[in-house]
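Quick start: what a row looks like.
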Amino acid sequence: MNARTQAYLLLLFGGALIRLGAGEALLRYVRPVARPWVLLAGAGLVVLAVAQLIQQRQTGSRAPGSVRTGWLLLAPVVAIVVIAPPALGTFSAAHATSRVVDASTQKQFPPLTGPSPHPLSLLDFTTRVLWDSGRTVAGHDVRLTGFVLSQRPDGFVLARLVITCCAADARPVEIFVISQAHPAKGQWVNLVGRYRGTDPDQPLFPRVAATDVQPTAQPANPYD
């Protein structure tokens, strides 16, 4: 592989990053806040590749580069453009070893405002329960979205993965849903319900008595 071919591969890699950063597929890998940095990195690679091609054209240099390692630039391009893995889901949540919310933390939250039911993320709902003893959610109808992690005789477990930086550090937040409905494992649902304390056997799991459970499509951003 010569230097010109390496420049073209670098150009392809930069273009793939720009394509990723400009679309919703980015949210399968990182938090939305990372979008400007991915776009900036892609643009920087494109500029570097173009500058290298211009230099090669001006000097007429065809000096060989690394014979094998240069082709490794194709690996991330294939991963981004061709493979496009789906967002993490039930398998990752079921095999995670730690949970997001530390029940030893104590914090006061502002009361819920606006029309009922109140839309909350699973992370927000769970932290209000475990960090504030459920004070601000008790007696309120809440709307929650997540995927069905597992079934229970009296309902199911609703979960959503939370990422701090990227999908590699994803950890689940889970609640027990008391319901007559039993959506299929892995199905995304919107539900409306009320907080019913924590599970006696697993006090880190809030319980919600659902009054309405509706299947829904996976959100554009599947992570909390």
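That is the whole record. The chain has a mean pLDDT of 81. The helical segments are 3-22, 35-59, 74-83, 90-95, 122-132.
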